[in-house]
Design goal:
The complex is a heterodimer of chains A (73) and B (176).
Chain A (H helix, E strand, L loop, with lengths): L4 H24 L1 H17 L4 H14 L4 H4 L1
Helix pairs in contact in A: 1-2
Chain B lengths: L1 H15 L8 H11 L5 H13 L4 H44 L3 H32 L1 H18 L4 H15 L2
Helix pairs in contact in B: 1-2, 1-4, 2-5, 3-4, 5-6, 6-7
The chains are: A mainly alpha (73), B mainly alpha (176).
Chain lengths: 73, 176
């Protein structure tokens, strides 16, 4: 009986996935979002990297690299 | 040692969890299911489903329930503290700093750049729930429940609790 909940949660996660993809698309654009999704997916799924490591690296890079006009858009 | 593990399992996801409450669900899953093996993906899904039907943010509810499940009352307390403490300490200690840098392009960039990562993590979690359901309920029941859930949640935009009640009723009748 309990296992019947799992497909419902799957649909919820699918909705969230789509929401976040749309958010990423609207703030970063499709040309940044798609390559990032592919690379990050490869690192986590292919190479088995811990997601926390990737996020930490991104946050650190976001803080220390210089801000260009382009990234402000 | 267990308490330390519980603390870390929630402290790490919540310290790096930029992008709102649901964004850290896959990160918590990576800790409690993949790293520490405290629960199966199915149990995690059930906790998430139950949490989603109740009011208030998802992260604290998940933490309280999983922490209690693993380490009793103190486990629950530690998990909730580990969830809330990072942002709370930041807010109390540096609220002036936060408001000052809120419009900083770097801070904006931080919350933007993690969005694709979060999308990938959520996609992976979706796939793992799908695999879980295919092996526990079989393809037929999975497709039927998922289709009805999609209809209720996406098409009719109803509250998650309705889809969950439906799935539990379906499970009681067809899955025993």
């Amino acid at each position: 009986m309990g296992q019947a909940v799992v497909p419902v949660v799957m649909i919820m996660m699918l909705q969230l996935t789509w929401d976040f993809f749309k958010k990423a698309k609207s703030s970063l654009g499709l040309y940044v979002t798609i390559p990032m999704v592919v690379v990050v997916g490869g690192l986590i799924f292919g190479l088995g990297m811990h997601p926390a490591t990737i996020i930490l690296v991104l946050l650190v890079v976001a803080v220390i690299t210089p801000v260009t006009i382009r990234s402000l858009r | 040692m267990l308490y330390l593990e519980i603390f870390l399992a929630f402290f790490i996801p919540n310290s790096i969890g930029y992008g709102g409450g649901p964004a850290i669900i896959p990160l918590i899953e990576a800790e409690v299911v993949a790293r520490y093996g405290w629960m199966s993906a199915a149990q995690f899904a059930e906790t998430l489903a139950l949490g989603n039907t109740l009011p208030s943010p998802i992260a604290t509810k998940m933490a309280g329930q999983i922490g209690y499940d693993v380490g009793g009352v103190w486990g629950g307390v530690i998990a909730v503290v580990a969830t809330v403490a990072p942002s709370l300490v930041l807010m109390l200690g540096a609220i002036g700093l936060m408001t000052k840098f809120k419009t900083s392009p770097r801070v904006k960039r931080m919350s933007r750049w993690v969005l694709p990562v979060v999308a990938v993590l959520m996609a992976l979690l979706t796939v793992s729930f799908m695999r879980e359901s295919l092996s526990s309920s079989g393809p037929l029941h999975t497709v039927i429940i998922a289709a009805v859930a999609a209809l209720l949640l996406v098409r009719l935009n109803l509250h998650p609790s309705i889809a969950i009640v439906f799935s539990l009723a379906y499970g009681a009748i067809f899955l025993g």
